[in-house]
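Allow me, if you will, to draw on your knowledge of protein folds for a short while. I have a record of one protein: its chain in single-letter code and its fold written as discrete structure tokens. Kindly check, if you would, that the fold set down in the tokens agrees with what the sequence suggests. Thank you for your consideration; the sequence and its tokens are set out here:
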Amino acid sequence: MFGKIIYIGDSEAHVENLQKEVNAADLMNMNVIFEEANQKILGEVSELSNEIIKIRFLGEYINGKYVNGVLRKPLLTSKIRMINKDELMELVGTYDASSFILGESAIYKGFQICPNINSLFSNHLAIFGNSGSGKSCGVARIVQNIFNNKFSIQYNANLFIFDSFGEYKNAFGKLNEINANYSYKFITTNPSDVGDIPLSIPVNLLKLDDMALLLQASNHAQLPIIEHTIKLAKIFSTNSQEANDYKNHLIAKALLAVLFSSETVASKKNEIFTIIEVCNTPEFNFDSVIPGLGYTRTFSECFEIDSNGNFGESVLITNYILGKINDTLDTIQAPEEASYSLKDFAKALEFTLISEGFQHNQNLHDDSVILKVRLNSIINSKINNFFNSNYVPLKDYIVSLIASGSKKAQIININLEDIDDIFAKVFVKIISRIIFDFAKGSELRAQVPFHLFLEEAHRYIQKDNDTFLLGYNIFDRIAKEGRKYGVILDIISQRPVEISDTVIAQCNNFLIFKMTHPLDIKYIGEMLPNISADILDKQKVLQPGTCVCFGGAFKIPMIVKMELPNPMPYSSNCDVSSCWKWEPKKDINIVPQNNFNPNISQTPASDNITNVSNSDIFI
């Protein structure tokens, strides 16, 4: 088959084709060995003609181990042969406790591709492919194979799957049937079955950055407003006398600023009443009793305007207000352990806006109105139900996520299918940030790995405004730093061009299913310069469930055929044919229409279908 070598270049060799009748399909992409004394160079058949076989150099076997790259080119006298079983096993891997079965080689039938678990999952992984190419089934099969490993029990795995469409519930719901030690947890924004856990995020774990994302802050001026509001919400959550005195202090300073402003008396009254309406305490409300010398007035009575156009009790109210000012309270510290809700946060926001530095600032007022509107919109929607007002320490919240009854859950499926993309993205970012902070603060660095599987990752990992507003994007940060702390991204998407370049650049392994969009194909080609044009072309016509795998976990780029998962995820196409069919019950009589006109909308006459109950109508 292989004749003499007639040309050796930097990256390929041209070999004489002795058997011109050899079918190209039998030889294309097959691996060959250039063998010489103390030298074994691996090559791949890239082109084939009647006269010439072009073979691209891939790497070298040194002491039986494969090493990528070729420093010494083969000699013109090197012997050329097909790769043998032992050499191939070095490439595809061996199934043992440190590996798992990914699938079958599409080129070498009967050989399983068994990547090392550490090589594949200790680095960020990207899985790309068109809709219907087998991405979801591939992910389900990979996870099922990991837990089906007959050599070891992956009890300490923590796989967080952010499920955009509720696809994986069926695929992993029976995880405990593989092994009684395994457990699966389904956290959802729309619990419908027994065992579904409602999504709940403690408000006390939300930092400035999280609140900015939740309220869709758009400029830096809004950040001090949010930061001050968080501080006040924590202080007010104690319901202590000191907290109440601090409220009175803030109200008093705001009222004093209005009283000594240059506004008209009527305007002052309106503004003072507005402040008391939104920010009030037992000492400052419309019915508060203001004691005078031998008489009392209510708060509202003190601001009645006399015939001279002044407040009738200006001296009385001024002295009362001055008595509530205590400048030492400005240094009060927010407690570390504070329980408060989004409604409490909204109340604290009102106090922020009357505080010194925020009051009478038109620009801040405009920015704050936007935040107030968005916050009230959240509070009055179902989004508010996903936030827990009870104080939960960071570690306890992580434990609550992975706990499943008395056992530990290895797969935590977080379903976000019934909420808008805007809030779904925020929830994913918040939970990812919480997990990253926990891992980063752990005493035992990278001893508790967390894998974040982001289904439809282009919905979340985008080139957002986060970097401009906050100085970072949580997914960019995890992509660059997460590996050191054991937080690994596994991104799944049909549109890689829409994903942040920073995240893609940090991915070390890729599984590419069929893709046809020219921009995506070009992007993939640029991501891996040493992938052959033939393999790149092959991925355009890959069968569903077949993917091109390359990266640090694979010795050479490989085409892998995966088995269908069992059970399957809810990711298959709609069975339109079955849905269209109507099989009437025995007590329903249908009289065929003989006068069908395709140009007229057909509605069966009322006497054609009888005895139809509500149970027959499934919509």
